[in-house]
Design brief:
seven-stranded mixed beta sheet; 20 strands; 22% strand
Length: 400
């Protein structure tokens, strides 16, 4: 089964008309995207968009052989003119199956938002799933019979859609996931590629033709990632995005609870509200133990608070205790953590702070913490396939 993406953008396209934002300003050339529309084996058109005939011609195809036009979502604005020779556009009611004269079988999949998803099976048995913008499959019960060969959907806007499909086995290790409906809330260029690769997905330019069922090069998802940055740089958000398409994640909160501190409680609450509801939280500093166990991906936030706890345990803040065994004890605990990062079989994203680029602390204890955190960050980074530095909300790749 051959799929041509006539467009890969949001319904308004990218750049949006008259939008002054930075993403729209840079959406030129290969990053400009028409509204998403899919042409399957020249016989089935999913979503009718302005300029579909010209988009098909640019991709080396014709719409003359199309036998069915199906819509996935309500279209705002003026009606799209139906090109000559195309059959009328329509939608299939949820759950119903349509068999085309070409031999393709189309099943309408219910969504949790206005719109209809379509599962398309070829005469040879390849299967793809196409999801409308801003929607995820609804009512997924039980395990899927087998994974889809290809899933096309709103990965940036609804990452939980991929998570739901992974949870029931509809997206497997060999499933190719293509991000479409890309709008100006998606980062431009390499930043988009990096975010999607963390989800095992990718974006392609308008006009790309894919062979469904052909062995795909699925993006490698780094097993160990370190995200560092300053205060309020966006490092925690960047770390959370890297795991938002996975159905199960254990969030390891190393900060614990601070009774009588409303400001800290507000910070913790903000993080909880941002995380997907399916994630489980572990409030612990026994990170090495979790890394050594089997289980779903881990998000450890953060190493600087873990180090604070480690220094508390050995009384490393006091000079005499530091000289009389505190330093040695801290080194042993740090080595245990680094060895656990090296040996873990789990996918893990670790968050830490960069504190050595500012004012030199005024106290011996403050300088000791700064130095030990720098050593810890360097040792953990050496064991990670990918290291990111987040500055002003922008992630800079240091490794990977």
């Amino acid at each position: 089964m051959e799929l041509t993406l006539l467009g890969t953008g949001a319904p308004d396209g990218l750049p949006r008309p008259s939008c002054p934002c930075a993403t729209c300003a840079t959406a030129r050339g290969p990053w400009a995207r028409a509204a998403t529309a899919l042409l399957i084996d020249d016989a089935l058109l999913l979503d009718l968009t302005p300029g579909a005939v010209f988009a098909a011609a640019r991709a080396g195809h014709s719409l003359g052989a199309v036998r069915q036009v199906l819509l996935t979502h309500p279209h705002d604005g003026p009606a799209v003119e139906l090109p000559p020779a195309l059959p009328p556009a329509g939608r299939v009611p949820d759950g119903q199956v349509l068999t085309l004269i070409s031999g393709h079988r189309v099943r309408a999949v219910p969504m949790d938002a206005p719109g209809t998803g379509y599962e398309v099976s070829s005469p040879d048995g390849e299967r793809l799933l196409y999801l409308p913008p801003g929607a995820a499959p609804a009512g997924l019960d039980g395990r899927a019979e087998r994974p889809y060969d290809l899933v096309v959907g709103d990965v940036v806007g609804r990452p939980d859609a991929v998570a739901r499909l992974r949870a029931v086995g509809a997206v497997g290790p060999a499933t190719e996931v293509i991000a479409v409906h890309l709008d100006h809330d998606a980062p431009p260029g390499a930043a988009l590629d990096r975010r999607l690769a963390a989800a095992g997905a990718r974006a392609v330019p308008d006009g790309t033709t894919l062979v469904v069922g052909e062995y795909p090069v699925v993006p490698d998802v780094p097993r160990r990632v370190l995200v560092t940055g300053g205060a309020r740089s966006g490092k925690s958000v960047e770390a959370e995005r890297r795991l938002e398409t996975f159905p199960e994640v254990v969030y390891v909160a190393t900060g614990g609870r601070r009774e009588g501190d409303p400001e800290w409680a507000a910070r913790v609450g903000l993080h909880r509200e941002r995380r997907p509801g399916a994630w489980r939280t572990e409030e612990t500093c026994e990170v090495a133990e979790l890394l050594g166990a089997d289980g779903p991906p881990l998000l450890v936030d953060c190493l600087s608070l873990w180090l604070t706890d480690a220094m508390d345990r050995v009384d490393a803040w006091e000079d005499v205790r530091w000289r009389e065994g505190g330093e040695k004890a801290l080194r042993a605990r740090v080595a245990e953590l680094v060895a656990a990062v090296r040996g873990t079989r789990r996918q893990v994203v670790l968050v830490t702070n960069e504190v050595g680029a500012g004012v030199v602390p005024a106290t011996v204890a403050g300088r000791r913490f700064r130095d030990e955190l720098g050593r810890l960050n360097a040792a953990v980074a050496a064991e990670c396939e990918e290291v990111l530095l987040v500055v002003a909300g922008q992630a800079v790749v240091l490794r990977g």
